[in-house]
Structure formats: structure tokens, C-alpha cells
Design goal:
This protein is α+β, with helices and mostly antiparallel strands. The protein has 19 helices and 30 strands. The strands form eight sheets. Strands 11-12-13-17-16-15-14-24-23-22-20-21 form a twelve-stranded mixed β-sheet, with helices on both faces. A four-stranded antiparallel β-sheet has the order 19-30-26-27, with no helix packed on it.
Length: about 850
């Protein structure tokens, strides 16, 4: 018995002076000294630890009490017949207990038994507790002899036809709070206190919703049925109305046409919950929760109050569900722009293609065919892909997930560029890139390559690029489609590269089309399709759904833009300066089309005091051409320092207007050089003791932070990294240049674009710079990060096409819509933009 003594000592040492023998408990601490809490929650004296501690024909129960073995010599029992004569089987616990001398109520019986009318304790759930056969019923139904109800075996009937749950006697006449529910129904377990799942027998309206508990529990059984409101929840259907505010006549049921339904949050099914219709947030107060079209303008209230919050918000593209003509402009709401493109049926349809292995959701227009590929990964290698192609236009693409080569997207793209090196092109790959942050927080980069592959088809080139980036032979990739058969000589390859540090994966999306189609501004459909695939808006992590949004605005001018060119004027740059002058006409074309008030100034990489060209900041294209071919100062190449000096000088408000930067203007800086920034190149660590040397990363980070904080958006037309382009060692003439890594870093850091100085002409990179500038200057910023292929726009009821010169475009870095040409909204005109966006967009 040493073990028993040890347990008793532990119980004594607990210091408890609480429950006496038989008291309720949760742990030993709840019991008095010398007692422990057994498995059924009662304080008991310890009798045993194991069977040897008990007498002959006894065993040790889980609650440390000795108990007789069953008639068959087993430990435990299921029914009375399992126990020796004079004992009954107690359930739960499954132990034999000596039959007592009788009971007066349930408190006199062990747990799991009740006091029957025969004055003895009997088990609940036992097949036959009918010990008084005077009711004329010989069936073992547990029917108490006085209630005459053989269907359920208890008093009162509890609706249990299996006779498995006879309840203690309940006096239905006792209703302390006069709520229509007897006390014995409210205190369901008859423990004399209110438990969380019980109504309060001392409060006629437990949940304070204006309805008596007995009205809500219509059949008075203590359990909520599907056609009852919840007496423990003031708002059963979560529509922001109390149950008593909906069941206004308090009869416990819904009266259609007179009341809102307390079981249905949106009684009239108009997509505005009942409570929000009664907040008074509309021009005429409340909408009618019993009428799905309150103002009878053929638009459901939820089609007008788009977010269903019970408030008219025209700035969000909403009309008022209590007015036929919300803005009083003479055009009924059902003909307004916000309705024509913002109804559920009007949003652009998208297919969401998920890959669990690759961890992507790709949003494609329905016209794209999509197939997942087996890229034959090595054991343990994460390599997954899919191919897609438009079914009527000659655009094909792919998506690949593979292990990261670098945690920085610029380095990841550089590694991919090395893989693409076998592609033939003029002057290298002619790579142009722009870094930004994806909507879900990952570093990303859009890139564009011009390649020359005479006689190839769009589909064949797509497959070749896929093979190079995945390091696989396309012929070995099963299910890889042939793709569009259209052939060409020059092609554009557009890519988005996404660096996901959380799972160590690089995601690349690519689109391929002929250069002729990309450059066709009169028929830009294929260019738009390819851009939407690779601008960073079409991909999310796996299993991401979409929401729709409708943003309303009014016509307003773009912000002005001041351009500052920082031009290398060394002898090798004359052809490059001429190439810029030749492309200068784009300034007038694109800026005027976007309605942007722009000026252009020129300094050189040699100017240390912020000097500008003869024409200072000018709007005249011819003057700019003159200045860019004859910059001020000399020919040294300290471009980052010169740009900083020019900005600092031009921010002096005391200067004449043509010499200073406008305070309200966006600032665009463009570096043009065929050599590395000289200060960065000459920055060397200490060579001998006492010489401080130069910290290269610190120097570069200082410039990156400066240009970003001004703020500016910087662009770089310089040599490709890491080795330059063309005959870089010579560094002379257009088509060659040293790597301009410092300039490129500043451009990437500020959201600008890098373009190769080795490109055969500068018009493509100049156009990208100007369109990025237009995005920066645009005042039409959307409330969410849109999937660009889903964007629709209307101005004064007329839909605006997606078009680079006659419609609108979307800039993913500045997150703005840019209108061009005659589509630009005039001041005060209604502008409505609808789109879809991924559900985990943090910009909510």
C-alpha cells in the first residue's frame, strides 16, 4: 500500500481545504485533505492504485476505488446482469455498485443514474428500466408508469423515440420568469445554475433581442430548430437587426411582406443585408429591405450600393438605390457608366489557373489555352511549368517555377540572360528592364528583349525560350504544344521575373510575339495581350481568388513632368547623342497625347555646379535636340554627381522659372553614357595604411537613396551588365559601351527602366521612358492592384478602348491608368474604371 500512501500524501500536501467526500471537483486541489478528484469529477478517498490493492474478486477502478468483478470475473460492466447479485452497473464508469436502500431524487443516485418512481436508482440509456410493470406495457421501453407515453420513455416527452434518454421528472407548470419556457427546460441539466448553452430561467429575454425565450423556442424543447430564432443570440441571421426588430409582432415566425426574415440576412435577395438597408445612409434615408429595387429603376439595390454597406458613395462608382437619377444629370442610373461596366455581368471574365506544385495562380482571358507541363525535374528539384497561347492571336507564352539563382531580382534576371545568350540578336539581347514590387510584396522585374530569329514561328520560339530558361530540351517536354504558326524575322520577348524568398522560388512568365505586331500601334491587340501577361498583374500564389472593384473619379489634368538628361559628352558619344536627338520627336507625341505639361533640360556628366544647356528647361523639341548634342561643361563622366548637382541647383526657388524645377512636377532623370560612372569606377578600398580609400557600396547606396528621396524616377541608357555590350573595350561609337552598373542600380531603385546603349535605335527605350513618365504623372490611381487584362474604362458613358495612343494604358509600377489622345477625360467629366484583383491584395 506504499503507492496509496504516496498519493494520499500528495493530496494532503496540496493544501486544499475545499470539497469534502463526494463534492464536485475538476482536480485534486478542489478536494479536502486526504481526498482526490476521481475520473467522474467527485472527491473520494483513495482505496487503490492497482488490482492487487483490492480484495478477492475485486479490481481497482480508474477512480481508485475497489469494485467487485462481474459475474464472469471481468473488470467493468455494461448492464446490471454483468454484476454480482445485489449490485447494479453504473454507467458512465462501467462499474458495479451495491444496490442502495432507495432514493428520493437524483441527488441520491450515483453519476449516470436517475431516481425512478420505484424509489431506486436506475441507469440512463439502459434498454429496460421498466421495473414497475403496472402500466400494462411488457416491452422494455423504460416507460414510467404514470405518463402513458410509450414513445419516449420519459416525463415530459423529449422527442426521443428510441427511448434512450429518459429524463428526470419535470414540472411543466413552474416558469419563474413567465417567458413560456418551464424552468426545467431552461435548466436542461437540472444543476440549479445557468450554463452557457441554457437560457436564463430568471430572465424572460435572455439575449435581450425583444422576443421572449418561449417565443424563440417555439416547441419549448430547449433546443434550437431550423425554423426557430436563437434565444441565446440577439441577431440569429447576423444581418445587424435584432430578432425582435425583424419579428415585429413577436409571434415567433416570419410573416412575408410585412416583416424581414430573422433567419435570412438578406430578405429581398438584393445583395444588401437587411440591417444595412435601414441605416439611413442614402439620400432618401433607408432603402426597403422587402423590395430588391427600392427606386424601381430596374437595378437591384445591391447593384447600386456595390459594397452593400448601406451608404451612397459616388466616389466608389455607386448610384443611390433610393434615387432614379442619383447625380441629377438627366441620365437615369440604369444608363450610367458605373452601371454599364460595373454590374457583375459586365466585369471581364478570367480563368484562374492554379498550380499547387509551382505555387501560382495565373489569371488568363478565356481565349487562352493552357496546359501544365512535366519539365522532368531531377529528384528533389523544384521545377514546374505550363504553356499557354491565344487561340486567335499569335501570342504564346509560358510560366516556370524554378529554384532561385539569386535573392535579388536583378541578379536573377542576369542569370536568366546568360541562359538566353544562344538566342541570336543584333547588338546583344537588347534587354530593357524595370524593377518594382509585386502586389503581394515580392521583388519583381519586367523585361523586354528584341531578338532576330529568321523564319521561326511564334510557337517554336516560345518553346525554345522555355527550354533555355528551364534548362531542358523542348523536344523532351511532353504535352508541349507547337504554338502559333505565324513566322517572322524579328521578335519581342516580354518577361516578368518574380523572386519569392519565402519558398526559394523564381517565377518567370514570358510572352512571345513578332516585332511587327508589337510595333503596330494601329492594331495593338497582340502587344496588349503580351503586356498584360507579363506586367506583374496576372500572377499570384496558388489558390487565390479574385474580387471586383469599380472606381469612380472625375476628369482632371495629369501632373506636370520635368525631364533632366545627364549626358556623357566624351568623344565616343556623338552617335549616341544623335540617336537621342533623332528620337526626340517622341517627347512631343507621347507627352501631348497624354496631356502632360512637360519640359526638358540637359546637363552633362562633367557639370559639378548644376549647369544646364543653353535652353535651360524647354518645351521646344528642337531646342532639346540642340542641347543634347552640345551639352554644357566638359567630357568627364561623373554622371551621378552631376545629376545630383543639377537637381540641387534647380530646386532653388529664387532662380528664373526656366532654370528651376517646378515644385508640383514629377522629376524624371535620364542618364546617357557609354562608360561606367567615373566616381563609382574609381572608388577603391584602402591600398596602404593611412589612406582612407572608398567604400563602393556606401557610395552607391548614398546616390540610390538621394534620387529616390527627392523623389525622382531615374532611367539609364548605358552598357549592359555585367560585361558591357558591343565592342565594350573600345567604348567608341553607337553600338558599344561599358557596363553602366551604377546607373542601372539607381534606375532600378527608383522604379525606372534600363535600356541598352547598344540598341540599333533609341526609339523603343525612349517610348518606354515616356510611357513610364506618363504613368508617374497620371492622377488616376486605382484603389487596388488590378489584373490589367480585366480593366475597363468609361468616360461620360462612353467606353474607352485599350489603346496606346487612342485609349488608355495601365502602368504597373505607378499603379495608375493613363488616358491618351481624344480619350483623355475633360475636367469634371465622369470617369469609371472597373477591374478584378486578387483577394489577398493588401491594398484594401
Amino acid at each position: 500500500m506504499a503507492a496509496i500512501s504516496a498519493i494520499m500524501t500528495a493530496a494532503c500536501n496540496s493544501g486544499s481545504t475545499a470539497g469534502e467526500q463526494g463534492a464536485d471537483c475538476v482536480s485534486d486541489e478542489d478536494c479536502a485533505q486526504g481526498l482526490i478528484c476521481n475520473s467522474v469529477g467527485q472527491c473520494i478517498t483513495v482505496e487503490c492504485i492497482s488490482d492487487p490493492d483490492c480484495g478477492e474478486n475485486e479490481y481497482c477502478r480508474e477512480d481508485h476505488r475497489c469494485n467487485p468483478l462481474t459475474a464472469d470475473g471481468d473488470a467493468g460492466c455494461s448492464i446490471d446482469s454483468d454484476c454480482p447479485s445485489g449490485f447494479t452497473c453504473v454507467v458512465p464508469g462501467n462499474y458495479c455498485a451495491e444496490i442502495d436502500d432507495g432514493c428520493e431524487n437524483g441527488d441520491d443516485c450515483p453519476p449516470g443514474q436517475y431516481c425512478a418512481p420505484d424509489g431506486r436508482c436506475h441507469n440512463r440509456n439502459e434498454a429496460d428500466v421498466d421495473v414497475v410493470p403496472t402500466d400494462g406495457d411488457d416491452a422494455p421501453d423504460g416507460d414510467l408508469p404514470t405518463d402513458g407515453d410509450e414513445s419516449d420513455g420519459d416525463t415530459p416527452p423529449d422527442g426521443d423515440p428510441a427511448d434512450e434518454d429518459p429524463e428526470p421528472s419535470c414540472d411543466m407548470s413552474v416558469d419563474t420568469d413567465d417567458d413560456g419556457l418551464p424552468d426545467c427546460i431552461e435548466d436542461k441539466n437540472h444543476n440549479g445554475r445557468r450554463d452557457p448553452d441554457e437560457t436564463d430561467l430568471n430572465d424572460p429575454d435572455t439575449d435581450d433581442d425583444g422576443l421572449l425565450d418561449g417565443v424563440e423556442d417555439r416547441n419549448h424543447d430547449g433546443t434550437r430548430q431550423f425554423n426557430e430564432t436563437d434565444p441565446l443570440d440577439e441577431d440569429t441571421d447576423f444581418d445587424r437587426l435584432k430578432d425582435g426588430e425583424e419579428d415585429t409582432n413577436a409571434n415567433g415566425q416570419w410573416d412575408p411582406g410585412v416583416e424581414t426574415d430573422p433567419h435570412n440576412p438578406d430578405t429581398d435577395q438584393d445583395n444588401v443585408i437587411d440591417g444595412n438597408e435601414l441605416t439611413g445612409g442614402y439620400t432618401n434615408g433607408d432603402s426597403d429591405p422587402l423590395d430588391r429595387d427600392t427606386d424601381d429603376d430596374t437595378l437591384p439595390d445591391g447593384a447600386e450600393d456595390k459594397n452593400g454597406n448601406g451608404t451612397y458613395e459616388p466616389e466608389l462608382g455607386e448610384t443611390d438605390p433610393t434615387l432614379v437619377d442619383s447625380d441629377d444629370d438627366g441620365t437615369p442610373d440604369n444608363l450610367e457608366s458605373v452601371i454599364l461596366i460595373c454590374q457583375d455581368s459586365a466585369y471581364t471574365e478570367l480563368n484562374l489557373l492554379n498550380s499547387f506544385d509551382g505555387n501560382w495562380t495565373l489569371a488568363l482571358l478565356p481565349a487562352f489555352a493552357y496546359v501544365e507541363l512535366d519539365l522532368l525535374p531531377n529528384p528533389g528539384e523544384k521545377l514546374f511549368g505550363a504553356a499557354f497561347e491565344h487561340q486567335t492571336e499569335s501570342v504564346a507564352g509560358f510560366i516556370v517555377a524554378k529554384p532561385l539563382a539569386s535573392g535579388r531580382v536583378a541578379n536573377q534576371v542576369a542569370a536568366d540572360n546568360a541562359l538566353l545568350a544562344p538566342l541570336p540578336s543584333t547588338g546583344g539581347l537588347n534587354h530593357r528592364g524595370r524593377i518594382y514590387q509585386s502586389y503581394d510584396g515580392f521583388e519583381a522585374m519586367t523585361s523586354r528583349y528584341t531578338v532576330t530569329v529568321g523564319g521561326a514561328s511564334v510557337g517554336a520560339l516560345r518553346n525554345r525560350v522555355l527550354g533555355l530558361l528551364a534548362n531542358r530540351n523542348p523536344a523532351a517536354i511532353s504535352a508541349l504544344p507547337a504554338g502559333p504558326a505565324e513566322t517572322g524575322v524579328e521578335f519581342e520577348i516580354l518577361t516578368e521575373t518574380l523572386v519569392r524568398l519565402d519558398d526559394g522560388t523564381a517565377i518567370t512568365i514570358a510572352a512571345v510575339l513578332t516585332k511587327a505586331h508589337y510595333d503596330d500601334r494601329n492594331n495593338p491587340e497582340e502587344r496588349i495581350l503580351a503586356t498584360d501577361l507579363t506586367d506583374g498583374s496576372a500572377v499570384a500564389q496558388s489558390q487565390r481568388g479574385t474580387f471586383s472593384s469599380c472606381d469612380a473619379d472625375i476628369g482632371k489634368p495629369s501632373a506636370p513632368v520635368d525631364f533632366l538628361w545627364v549626358v556623357d559628352d566624351s568623344g565616343s558619344m556623338s552617335e549616341d547623342q544623335q540617336a537621342v536627338a533623332d528620337a526626340a520627336s517622341l517627347f512631343g507625341q507621347i507627352m501631348a497625347s497624354a496631356g502632360i505639361d512637360f519640359r526638358v533640360g540637359v546637363t552633362s556628366t562633367d557639370c559639378a555646379q548644376g549647369e544646364l544647356g543653353d535652353n535651360k528647361f524647354t518645351r521646344d523639341t528642337a531646342q532639346f535636340q540642340s542641347d543634347v548634342q552640345d551639352p554644357p561643361c566638359g567630357s568627364s563622366e561623373y554622371g551621378l554627381r552631376a545629376g545630383q548637382a543639377a537637381i540641387n541647383h534647380a530646386q532653388n526657388s529664387g532662380l528664373p522659372e526656366r532654370e528651376r524645377l517646378r515644385a508640383e512636377a514629377s522629376i524624371i532623370v535620364i542618364f546617357l553614357s557609354d562608360e561606367e560612372d567615373q566616381q563609382y569606377q574609381d572608388c577603391l578600398p584602402p591600398i596602404f595604411p593611412g589612406w582612407p580609400g572608398c567604400d563602393k557600396p556606401q557610395l552607391l547606396n548614398g546616390y540610390k537613396d538621394y534620387y529616390k528621396n527627392v523623389p525622382t524616377t531615374a532611367f539609364a541608357i548605358v552598357g549592359d551588365t555585367p560585361d558591357g555590350c558591343g565592342n565594350a573595350s573600345e567604348g567608341s561609337g553607337q553600338g558599344s559601351g561599358e557596363a553602366g552598373s551604377a546607373y542601372i542600380e539607381v534606375a532600378y531603385h527608383t522604379g525606372g527602366v534600363f535600356g541598352s546603349i547598344c540598341a540599333p535605335n533609341f526609339r523603343p527605350i525612349m517610348e518606354e521612358i515616356l510611357r513610364a513618365a506618363a504613368g508617374t504623372a497620371s492622377t488616376y490611381e486605382l484603389r487596388h492592384h488590378p489584373i490589367s487584362s480585366s480593366i475597363r474604362a468609361m468616360v461620360d458613358g462612353t467606353e474607352v478602348p485599350r489603346h496606346p495612343t487612342l485609349g488608355f494604358e495601365y502602368d504597373v509600377v505607378s499603379e495608375t491608368v493613363v488616358f491618351y489622345g481624344d480619350s483623355r477625360p475633360e475636367a469634371g467629366r465622369d470617369v469609371v474604371i472597373s477591374y478584378r484583383y486578387f483577394r489577398d491584395d493588401p491594398k484594401q
